[in-house]
Amino acid sequence: xxxxxxxxxxxxxxxxxxxxxxxxxxxxxxxxxxxxxxxxxxxxxxxxxxxxxxxxxxxxxxxxxxxxxxxxxxxxxxxxxxxxxxxxxxxxxxxxxxxxxxxxxxxxxxxxxxxxxxxxxxxxxxxxxxxxxxxxxxxxxxxxxxxxxxxxxxxxxxxxxxxxxxxxxxxxxxxxxxxxxxxxxxxxxxxxxxxxxxxxxxxxxxxxxxxxxxxxxxxxxxxxxxxxxxxxxxxxxxxxxxxxxxxxxxxxxxxxxxxxxxxxxxxxxxxxxxxxxxxxxxxxxxxxxxxxxxxxxxxxxxxxxxxxxxxxxxxxxxxxxxxxxxxxxxxxxxxxxxxxxxxxxxxxxxxxxxxxxxxxxxxxxxxxxxxxxxxxxxxxxxxxxxxxxxxxxxxxxxxxxxxxxxxxxxxxxxxxxxxxxxxxxxxxxxxxxxxxxxxxxxxxxxxxxxxxxxxxxxxxxxxxxxxxxxxxxxxxxxxxxxxxxxxxxxxxxxxxxxxxxxx
Length: 503
Fold this sequence. Notes:
three-stranded antiparallel beta sheet, five-stranded antiparallel beta sheet, alpha+beta, 14 strands, 15% strand
């Protein structure tokens, strides 16, 4: 039976029939062509709803009667009492009509305020059933941000796995962060267009119980979904781009755009990309979203999804930071590859000034887009550290980092300079050489202990040994990892860090 035939049999409007189906009173079958096919049982259910609603029962009460959670006889008895009370109110309305006639009022002399204070009239029940709730401003906002977070997390994870992208470093770069957000918006355009057309919802909206349909209750066409999502991408892409510009004068209009959208939704004004479209959710007028356990479970699911997105990016960061060669036994070539890749991951390929070679020295990196580095504290005469490798049967068993310098003569004020202690190189060497034996946590703890001991450490961990010695004179500390050469003094600088892997 088609919906047109159901209208004829029940006397209900199509909007009523769709609404009661949405509320879960019945579920019509689907024909091979995808159209709903209503049964005699569906007709009987609709007639019962129509009768009970016209008697004044709420939808929640009818649900409880349908599920057998309450009996009809006591419910009718209670409704009878309510109708008696209503009869008295209607009697008051009838008396008010008589009084108005006795007062001889006309339309132009009618004092409406006087009579309205004596009478309150209820709206049509069935008309209310046809008008679904349309606001949900905060749920819509958080559903949108959750969708963006999901696309963003998946894109970041894919880049972490394919290009070893350092998400923390990229996030600190305004331009790179904006490109990631723009990519997430473009992904949203493709995925959301299809989802709205097929299911009428997206992951964020589904978690928060929202669905987007046409006014007649049907799903959006593919062109409508694409048009709607394109407007969303352009609007929010522009707003988020302004916010991420890190310029206050540009951030303010971006924030204002987001507030305006939420304000429009809160006041039930459709945004310019959703004309003739409406939002539906699983709540009813009798039982709101927050009154049942399901609403709180949806919020918990939403929070869990956000946590999963964060966990995915954190896990991807940890996986991307791992050395490509993680065995307990490495060759010199593998160690050098681990070292250079870790430095690229930590500081960016475009920021590295030198690469480690298999001879243990550092080779200057290619020119980097014309970037010029100026030493504001004077050029340091201290040479770069060098690595010395010990092998047994082609397997690397020991690495030694050495950096030493003797000035011989005292320096003048014009000759003073700044030198950085090689902690970065030591940390990178430890991760590159000992990762397969010690793992991330133990290496991090050992390197932290070495820095706290000001470069002097002797420790043995799980078949690996670290010996580090550091001494200098004619310098004073500049921060935690730098030294400044002192005027009028000669300089002596010595660092030696040895790492052994007992196979």
